[in-house]
Amino acid sequence: MPTQPTIARIWRGRTRPEIADSYEAYIKAEGIPPLERTALGVQLFREDREHESWFTTISYWPDFESMTAFTKGTPTKVHHLDRDPEFLIELPEFIQIHRILVDRQGLR
């Protein structure tokens, strides 16, 4: 039986709308694959606003220890991708860590 996630690790960053498509392709190619290999699951969201585009990545972990092993230390520390300074309006300073209290999918 697959392990259920108990932890969600949430990263948010924003870019200019005119380069949002390029950043989306970049984060899908460079940021998501390592999470797909190690986390129980990962989601990437995009919200386009008039003057900025927001990206949110949520990865799901069975426990704090496995997330800490992936981050090689402090899970709240941001590990920027090499080209993040080129794309992002500002470099995010923190990651949010949330315990999952309810996990229901497929609700109607």
Automatic annotation (TrEMBL):
It comes from the Bacteria. InterPro entries: Dimeric_a/b-barrel. This is Antibiotic biosynthesis monooxygenase. It comes from Bradyrhizobium icense.
